[in-house]
Design brief:
4-stranded antiparallel beta sheet; mainly beta
């Protein structure tokens, strides 16, 4: 393709985009965090924001499918697609731990490493048990962490 042809293509594309915005049309872009699909099955029962100051950099998402609880740490915002350390832990706990931040773990599953989008999924059996989950993202040497209370019994 010649430089002249390439330049004409860019001008046409820019003009079409400008007209679409002017006319109120929806412009499709590449999928980002809002379009991200979970790798856990079931229904989302809790989602906590992982923040650096007031900026959301990710989410800890917890799911229930009727038998298993599943958790994942999802990157968001400016961290979406950037390689970084991320982790997620889920624990099943006795019913007596409900509402606390401490869990006498019956079983647990974890995942951690250097990822661009997700850590997890991790799963534990949640029948007749409570669960607790932790999610973290490391940026610039600082670990940003959220934890659920023991619940979803």
């Amino acid at each position: 393709m010649s430089v002249t042809t390439a330049l004409k293509t860019v001008v046409r594309t820019s003009l079409a985009t400008t007209m679409a915005v002017f006319l109120g049309a929806t412009i499709l872009t590449t999928a980002g965090p809002a379009a991200a699909e979970s790798r856990c099955s079931g229904t989302m029962v809790e989602s906590l924001s992982i923040k650096k100051s007031s900026t959301v950099i990710g989410y800890l998402n917890l799911y229930w499918d009727g038998t298993y609880n599943c958790a994942e740490t999802q990157s968001a915002g400016s961290t979406w697609g950037d390689s970084k350390k991320m982790g997620v832990i889920i624990k099943s706990c006795p019913l007596s731990n409900k509402g606390s931040y401490g869990c006498n773990s019956i079983a647990s599953d974890s995942d951690g490493g250097t990822y661009r989008y997700y850590a997890g999924p991790v799963r534990v059996n949640g029948v007749n048990r409570c669960v607790q989950a932790h999610g973290d993202i490391t940026l610039g040497g600082y670990v940003y962490l959220v934890s659920t209370r023991v619940g979803h019994c």
